[in-house]
Every structure is written in C-alpha cells, then in structure tokens.
Design goal:
The protein has 342 residues and is an alpha/beta fold. The protein has a domain of 210 residues: Rossmann fold (3-Layer(aba) Sandwich). Helices cover 37% and strands 15% of the residues. It is built from 12 helices and 13 strands. The protein has a 7-stranded parallel sheet, sandwiched between helices. Strand 2, helix 2 and strand 3 form a beta-alpha-beta unit. The protein is globular, with a radius of gyration of 20 Å.
C-alpha cells in the first residue's frame, strides 16, 4: 500500500474539475502538503482553489522548467497526480496537444519514476474511440482507434508507457463521463448537467439530440456517467493501491441522457420539458450510442466504494452547488444530501 501522507503531493491541473475535487478529498482526509500546478490563464477556475488548503502553487510551465533543469528545487515528492491537460475534444492544434498532453506527461512520468514517487496520470475513455462494447482497461492498446486529436494525444502516451516499460511502474486512469462541482470554467466541455441546468433555468426546457438508430429511442442514448466525488474517491484508492497500467474510472453502468437530465427538473421543482433536436450532420457518423466502463480491475483490487446513484448525484450537484453558486469546500461541516443518503 502507498501512503499518501508520506511526502509532499503534486497535483497538476489542480484548479480543474477532477484536480480540485481531488485536493478537496485530500483536505478532508487531513492532507494539505500539496503543490498545486496549473495554468490559470484568464479563466475563473482560480475560484476553485480559494476554499482549498495547499502548500504552494506553481505555473505548469515553470514546474516543467524545474523538473527539467532544477529538480532539486522541487524537493522530495511522494505522489504525483498528473491531471493537467488540454481536454477539449474540439482542439485542432495538434502541435499544442502533442506538447501539452504527450511530451509533458512523458517528462513528468520519467522524473517521478526516477525519484521513486508514485505517478498517477489521467488517460481518458476517449482513447477507446468509437467502441460501444468491450471498453475494458485490459484491451490491447494497438487495436484502439481514437476519433479526435485529444484522444490520440492521450492514447499515444498510453502506448509509450507500455512500449518503454513505464506502465509497470505507473498507473493511468481512463476517466469516463465525469460531472460535478468545479466544472464551470470548461465552456463547451462542461457536462450536460451543467448545460441543461442553464437551459432549464433560462427557458424551462432542455434540448437533447434525436436518435438515428431504431434500437435507441430519443434520449435513450447511453453513457457511463460518474459523479466527480466518486471519481476522486476511486483515484485516491488507485494511488494507494499497487495497481499499475491502465484502470477504468466509471460507474460501470450505462445510463441514458433522460436519466441524467430528469433529476435536474426535480431538484429545481419545475415541470419536465424536454425537446429533441436534430443532430448536426457532421456528428452523426461518429456519434456513440452506448458507452460503459468495465471496472473489473478496480473491484478485483479491493475497491468497494458505493457508487452514488445517478439521481442523487445530480440532485446533490444542483442543490448544493449550482443553485447557491458554490464550489467544493473541505470546511463544510454539515453532511451534504449525498453523504446523508448513503
């Protein structure tokens, strides 16, 4: 077992959705010897850091410079959670993605392994490409065909780690459809919950794509949705375990878009109004109608955490965070509706 309390922790992407939620969970476990690494730029994600406890903050480029030329200035590190990346599936600057997602990860992985730090990095379920069945973290990597440059940049590092033997010393997390508080900065990459909440509060109606396959009704297209609180609980478990290679992080259940948006109306106390709209032509040929994580490796390693039921997760997100305009705060004294219901 790896002890997270031994030695400082580095969290790259620490102001992002999963990164800030991870720091929130570590803080709740009494851990705050954390170096946050990110690029804040002109976004508002700095607000996610305000309630969190950590030792220091460093810009991602400055951190890379230290790793390359003055690693002694960083000091000893026990664990590295490398969650920082450009996650926009619409990003078309391939050179940027290769530098930011691929080369940067290689650099940090070698540094971590050389210094005996536990290295946990974010891969992505997007690396499975157009697959709708058999999304196993034990699948042969060379058979996967990512559909966009973001996914390919992630897949390329997975292949590199396997080819060089790094995969035997590090662990990559294939996150599925993560949603929850602290995603407000993500623009078009926000979850449907956040987008639907805005649509419903503005017009009382949420818009979903029509189905173009007879075996799926409108709104019955499926995804593996996972609440960010569950995703970081799994992340911490994996970090503390002896797992290496790749591990799926998902709920292990396929749920429909209707299952996802209906609890939003209930949380807001408004009538359900759903409109089905035409899917743009350029998306129809590559749209996935069903995805679901196989989480057998996680379970076999001993993870027995309760998955938050989807309706309760959405209700917690809307009532505890979206409606009051709040971010994750480790100092919250009272249990959330989520924890009270488990």
């Amino acid at each position: 077992m790896h002890d997270l309390s031994k030695g400082p922790i580095v969290v790259t992407g620490g102001a992002g959705l999963i990164g800030s939620a991870l720091i929130w969970l570590l803080n709740r476990r009494g851990i705050d010897d954390i170096l946050v690494v990110d690029r804040l730029d002109r976004s508002e994600k700095w607000r996610h850091l305000v309630p969190l406890r950590f030792r220091d903050y460093l810009d991602a480029d400055d951190f890379a410079e230290l790793v390359s030329h003055r690693p002694e200035a960083i000091g000893p590190v026990g664990t590295v959670f490398h969650l920082g990346a450009c996650s926009a599936t619409t990003e078309t600057d391939a050179d940027y993605l290769m530098r930011n997602n691929y080369e940067y990860t290689k650099q940090l992985a070698h540094w971590a392994v050389d210094t005996d730090a536990r290295f946990v990095y974010a891969s992505s379920a997007a690396t499975y490409g157009g697959l709708e069945r058999g999304l196993s973290d034990e699948a042969c990597l060379r058979t996967l065909r990512p559909l966009n440059m973001y996914a390919y940049s992630k897949h390329l590092f997975d292949l590199y780690a396997e080819r060089t033997g790094l995969a035997q010393s590090i662990v990559g997390l294939k996150f599925f459809n993560v949603f929850g508080p602290n995603e407000d900065h993500k623009g078009e990459m926000r979850s449907i919950v956040h987008k639907a909440y805005e649509q419903i509060t503005a017009s009382g109606t949420v818009k979903l794509f029509k189905s173009y396959r007879p075996e799926f009704g409108d709104g019955a297209q499926e995804r593996d949705f996972i609440y960010v609180k569950d995703a970081v609980d799994m992340t911490v478990f994996v970090a503390e375990s002896s797992l290496t290679g790749l591990v799926n992080v998902g709920s292990g259940q396929a749920r429909t878009w209707l299952d996802l948006v209906r609890p939003i109306f209930g949380a807001l106390g408004v009538p359900e109004r759903i409109e089905f709209v035409e899917m743009p032509e350029h998306l129809r040929g590559k749209y996935q109608y069903s995805t679901c994580a196989t989480i057998d490796r996680l379970r076999a390693a001993g993870y027995h955490g309760d998955q938050t039921p989807l309706d309760r997760a959405v209700d917690d997100y809307v009532r505890s965070y979206l409606l009051p305009g709040r971010h994750l705060d480790p100092a919250d004294a009272q249990p959330s509706p989520l924890s009270a219901s488990l």
